[in-house]
Amino acid sequence: MFRTNITAMQGYVPGEQPQGMEYVKLNTNENPYPCSPTVKAAIGRVLQVGLQRYPDPLATAFRERAAALLKDEVPGITPDWIMCGNGSDDILTIVTRSFVAPGGLIRFPRPSYVLYNTLAAIQGADSETVEFESDWTLDERFTATDERLQLAFLPNPNSPTGTVIAPSGVAHLAAALPCPLIVDEAYADFAETNCLGLVATNERILVTRTLSKSYSLAGLRFGFVVAQPQVIEQLNKVKDSYNCDSLSIAGATAAIDDQAHFVRTRDAILATRQRMTSALRGLGFDCIDSQANFVWCRHGQRDSRELYQQLKDAGVLVRYMNYAGWGEGLRISVGSDEQCDLLLAKLAAIV
Predict the structure, then answer these.
(1) Which UniProt keywords apply (predicted)?
(2) DSSP state of 189
């Protein structure tokens, strides 16, 4: 009954979400701190009115507040530069459906977010990966001409490494590519820089964001994309009519309104990230300097899969990842200080 590309593909496998035993969860890059109290109040107001009516199909309230918030980073931005989605993964799906025809080609770096490969397979398109250089940049292979190339993804900061390509480098890549470039900035709020400002300079640059990580709203599912208005106009034709519900629109709008809460929790995560990275190195781990809310590491003398299992047995979940031909390691989310202290104590006992 199914299309051949569906039966042949491997579906995307999310990080473990245990339903039974209680774990210290450091495997899916969730924010360890609660969302702003204003989010719950905003959702409560929606519930008082009721859910019998459809939500605003364009999430206008959020787009207006986001445009006001981003006006210093994106010259000329208005709400028409923003489209919202059910998490940034929904946005990635919409842009894939919009730009890529069956039989087309999607290009992205390796190692990076494995969902890109899944999106290509669903679309009936081919994937092409380009290995990062040793300094985590991308060479001319990433911009090489191919008549089938219709879309390029660039996670920035990258997962699982937490590394970043500077905006000037991203602008160079976009100028050389013959197709749109999606800059996936799911973790950009934890980085020293971002590429939002590039959107105004090139209509083929689209920047996606999520509120799952830095705003503690992974359970609410809300993301958005920033692009020039003529691009957003076409993307709106492809998205589901009501792809964001009334509760998520209200909660997301309240979250970005409370910038004081956002800054406090982000700064706490950055401080813990620095301390955790130093402590992991002290235990013999090789850690890449991260600009995200996680750390990628390998131990010089211990097998990563075994370490993952030993930590799981001890009640701590981290993400074991293995990229064939590149290597394996552990991606560890930055939790609260208490969670990270427990992780480090367990690791010290193991190694």
Answers:
(1) Amino-acid biosynthesis, Aminotransferase, Histidine biosynthesis, Pyridoxal phosphate, Transferase
(2) G
* pLDDT tens sequence across 51-106: 999 999 999 999 999 999 999 999 999 999 999 999 999 999 999 999 999 999 99
Q: For the chain, what is the total number of helices (H) and then of strands (E)? A: 11, 13
Whole-number Å distance between alpha carbons of 70 and 241: 25
Cα four-point dihedral sign 149, 199, 164, 188: negative
C-alpha atoms less than 13 angstroms from C-alpha of 114 in its C-beta half-sphere:
12
Same domain for 238 and 101: yes
pTM of full prediction above 0.90: yes
Do 174 and 57 sit in the same domain of this protein?
A: yes
Strands, E, within 269-346: which ranges? 285-287, 294-299, 316-317, 319-323, 327-333
Strands 105-110 and 149-155: parallel
**Spatial CA neighbour of 224 closest among 203, 247, 200, 248:** 248
Number of C-beta neighbours around residue 207 at 10 A: 26
Range of the domain at 30: 17-34+260-350
What values do phi and psi take at 284, rounded to 5? 95, 10
